[in-house]
Design a protein that fits this description.
Blueprint: E1 8-11, E2 24-27, E3 43-46, E4 55-58, E5 61-65, H1 70-77, H2 96-103, H3 108-111, H4 116-122, H5 128-135, E6 139-143, E7 149-153, E8 158-160, E9 163-164, E10 171-178, H6 179-182, E11 185-191, E12 201-207, E13 212-218, E14 225-230, H7 235-244, H8 256-278
Parallel strand pairs: 1-3, 2-3
Antiparallel strand pairs: 4-5, 5-10, 6-7, 6-10, 8-9, 11-12, 12-13, 13-14
Helix pairs in contact: 2-5, 7-8
């Protein structure tokens, strides 16, 4: 789409370049920004020119640069990115990444342009990279306009369906995922009303080395619902917890009651798989 209100475009190369003037907005892949009119926007500030590393690995875990594209993340998991550090062999949870990419319901052209940070900052409830990073206790690294930095769980980033807690001038710099979560057994399941429709419910579950489990409901609730248990819960306990969660909503992609019911079913399917794997 032609965004006819745009009169300026700046390539950011230093933190000083990130200072916004009235009417400016940050852009990375721009797959959403360029998909519909932006009447209040008069300029774009390009984040992809900041030179951030796509992926970094250390003993603490994985750091995903906010401008890393979905295609690069997927290529890394599938061993097609020889310039990126190879993932440790015990990082089983990265097997969720292809499922998350496919749940985005986008063509390879979008994958090659859309960024991980953009998917998180758009904070649609059905954002599949939101599901993946929340499932693994991802931490958002945020640059503040005063030159500082703050961290917060990715689960706390959304404030609603399509809104987030970032203040104007704040920039999502990276997402950090801890190594213990990456070593977990993790699964992602989704459902939509239409075969090629946006997700009506996405549920993830992971079983950690310390025997704790974490289940996350996204898409079905306005903001991520995180449920933690000691050990693998029994079916009744998990179902009751999912059904009792707040935030199920109704829109053209599904009724609240349907979202609630299918979330419980998806969670139970994951629970059974994790139980069988543990046995």
């Amino acid at each position: 789409m032609d965004i006819t209100t745009i009169t300026s475009f700046r390539a950011a190369r230093t933190r000083g370049d990130l200072a916004l003037t009235p009417g400016e907005r940050y852009i990375a892949g721009g797959t959403w920004l360029m998909s519909e009119p932006q009447p209040d926007t008069t300029g774009f500030v390009d984040l992809t020119t900041m030179g951030w590393a796509d992926l970094e690995i250390d003993e603490q875990g994985l750091r995903i640069g906010a401008t890393c594209t979905i295609a690069r993340l997927l290529a890394w998991v599938e061993g097609r990115a020889s310039d990126l550090p190879s993932p440790p062999p015990d990082w089983h949870a990265i097997g969720m990444i292809p499922d998350a990419a496919n749940a985005l319901l986008a063509s390879f052209k979008i994958w090659n342009t859309a960024t991980v940070g953009g998917n998180l900052c758009q904070t649609f409830s059905a954002g599949s990279l939101l599901s993946f990073t929340v499932a693994l206790d991802g931490v958002a690294v945020i640059w503040t306009p005063d030159g500082g930095e703050r961290r917060m769980p990715v689960a706390s980033l959304p404030s609603g369906n399509g809104t987030n807690v970032l203040a104007r001038g704040e920039v999502l710099r990276a997402i950090e995922i801890p190594a213990p979560a990456l070593r977990s057994r993790a699964l992602l399941r989704k459902i939509a009303l239409a075969e090629l429709g946006r997700s009506g419910a996405v549920v993830t579950g992971r079983h950690d080395e310390d025997d704790t489990t974490t289940f996350v409901v996204t898409a079905a609730t306005l903001t991520p619902t995180v449920l933690r248990f000691e050990g693998i819960p029994d079916a009744a306990t998990l179902t009751a917890s999912v059904l009792a969660a707040d935030g199920y909503y109704t829109d053209p992609l599904g009724e609240a009651d349907w979202r609630r019911a299918v979330s419980a079913e998806l969670a139970e399917r994951i629970r059974r798989s994790l139980e069988e794997d543990a046995a």
